[in-house]
Specification:
Blueprint lengths: L18 E8 L7 H14 L4 E5 L7 H4 L4 H4 L20 E2 L1 E3 L2 E5 H4 L11 H14 E2 L3 E7 L8 H7 L4 E6 L7 H12 L4 E6 L4 E2 L6 E2 L9 H4 L5 E4 L4 H9 L3 H4 L4 H16 L3
Parallel strand pairs: 1-7, 1-8, 2-5, 2-7, 3-6, 8-9, 9-12
Antiparallel strand pairs: 4-5, 10-11
Length: 282
């Protein structure tokens, strides 16, 4: 029988049939704690009883696996079968299961592409294909929500990713100094122009609690809060403190929600999860 011609991927953003909600976690620049928020929010949503997936699409710094204690070597066995990227949709039995850590499903561009191949991620159409591939070829199972750790910034590859996957909302992570900065506003505009509803803003590294007297210390100068937030058009979903236990995960692979589930910083994320779920009608 003649071989079927290979299908080109369908145009337009992909809507995942098995994920009820798809939420981007984004930021105008790197290093603000976007992945930290993505990981802890994912775990907090799971702790509230939701079925959660987390896709790390930050091609510039895919560090979600590290934060969840997943090493590339142990996880990519069998992945060669997924290549070549860009082939047509695969039958469920050909798909590879998402990794499971701490009760959530996870997959990362960093697990698919090795350090030595990272140059291919400079090509934005490759980024789009790769993410589409991770969405369609990974067996995510039924999800109440899929969180996507977006690359930081305001142009590419965000624009390509926005065209790749249909989103129900976006959480913008900022630090106090960034609030009024153009980067986060521009990043928000990019989502708005693609018709993605703004779920809200999370201010990370918002304050420090003095270990001696419990006083709330404002470490960073807070920029003037943009009018969109004060006017209530863009809700401020949470203010997250600076806490050593929050940054521990990057080194130990054990997120704060797991190591300190009863702490007040865990409570901040659990509350955030409740607010996000409410905003998304979950
Ligand atoms: N609230 C916080 N308290 C303490 N450290 C934090 C907090 N948020 C982020 N960090 C640390 O800051 C660094 C950058 O965070 P990360 O989530 O990797 O940022 P991004 O994904 O935006 O580049 C990491 O070392 C992380 O552990
Ligand atoms: Mg990151």
């Amino acid at each position: 029988m003649p071989e079927e011609p290979r299908q080109t991927p369908p145009p337009g953003p992909l809507r995942l049939p098995n994920a009820r909600r798809v939420l981007a976690i984004a930021s105008g620049k790197g290093g603000v704690g976007k992945s930290t928020v993505a990981v802890n929010l994912a775990l907090a949503l799971a702790a509230r009883g939701h079925r959660v997936g987390l896709l790390d699409a930050d091609v510039h710094g895919p560090n979600v696996p590290l934060m969840l204690g997943v090493r590339r070597k142990e996880s990519v066995r069998g992945w060669e079968a997924m290549l070549p990227i860009g082939s047509a949709a695969h039958a469920p039995e050909q798909r590879l299961p998402a990794l499971e850590r701490y009760g959530i499903k996870m997959m990362s561009v960093g697990l698919l592409v090795g350090e030595e191949q990272s140059a291919m991620l400079e090509n934005v159409s490759m980024v789009g294909l790769m993410v589409r591939h991770l969405l369609t070829m990974v067996e995510w199972g039924e999800l109440d929500i899929l969180l996507i750790d977006f690359p930081p910034g305001t142009s590419e590859p965000q624009a390509t990713l926005l065209a790749t996957v249909a989103l129900d909302g976006v959480v913008m992570v900022v630090t106090p100094q960034d609030l009024a900065l153009l980067d986060s506003t521009r990043a928000m505009n990019a989502f708005a122009q693609s018709g993605v509803p703004m779920t809200g803003v999370v201010e990370n590294m918002s304050y420090l609690i003095c270990p001696c007297c419990d006083e709330r210390i404002q470490v960073f100068h807070r920029s003037q809060v943009p009018r969109a937030i004060t006017a209530g058009d863009v809700p401020l979903l949470a203010e997250i403190p600076i806490e050593p236990t929050i940054s521990e995960a990057a080194d130990t692979g054990r997120p704060m929600i797991v190591t300190h589930p009863d702490s007040r910083q865990a409570a901040v994320f659990l509350e955030l999860a409740g607010v996000v779920a409410g905003r998304l009608g979950m």
